[in-house]
Request: fold
Amino acid sequence: MHVAGYSYSQFARMSLDGRGYYNFPDKNKLAFRAYAGLAVPYGNSSNMPYIKQFFSGGPNSIRAFSINTVGPGTYNQSDSLTFLRLGGDIKLELNAEYRFNIYRFLKGALFTDAGNVWLLKSSTSTMGSPFSFSGFVGEMAVGAGVGLRIDVSFFLLRFDLATPLRKP
Reply:
């Protein structure tokens, strides 16, 4: 379909980001995050626009994996791809982090991350596996690591080192 001579995509996209914190008496903290997203093309669109797809992996996601390299499903994206990555229509991520004080503005963290992205249906163009309730837990990427934080009142520098524990 066209409007004023331009084609456009029709889709619905929703995401939920929930966070919880538990503060210990010694000022250490346990932080949890759960993120879920769903995107559905409809009408004149059979696929989501690339910039509206969900991606997983990287410093603000599953830290043990390179940026946008997780999924969809069990599809393995090689690190040789440098620009375009495959995204998904469904995203689920879970993070847990124990944050502790080392000395004044120097802080530490122990963390674990899990998640993936999936397609709603099979597509020959992307080779990713579609989402299924019976198999999604086995397709979750899991990573764990340690971090060092330099936390002054007006900015925070993070240095994280993580390793994959499970590759989908």
